[in-house]
Amino acid sequence: MADELKERILNICSELGEDIDSADCKKLRQHVASCQDSSAFVDSVKKTISLYKAYGPNIDHDTSSRLLGKLGLD
Prior knowledge:
mainly alpha
């Protein structure tokens, strides 16, 4: 579980342009590890992305943009 959480945080930090060992990413890691709501959110986003990749729906750019917007990934 710890490796999986570290991988998730690494992905988040990477998207934010931060190094996994930066102070901001360490704070984020600590927060997600101690906050059930944040951990559940990270799990939900990961599952959504996995399903999206697995099924590879053929959707138009507008629909894809709205989905990413709803997930806060735009």
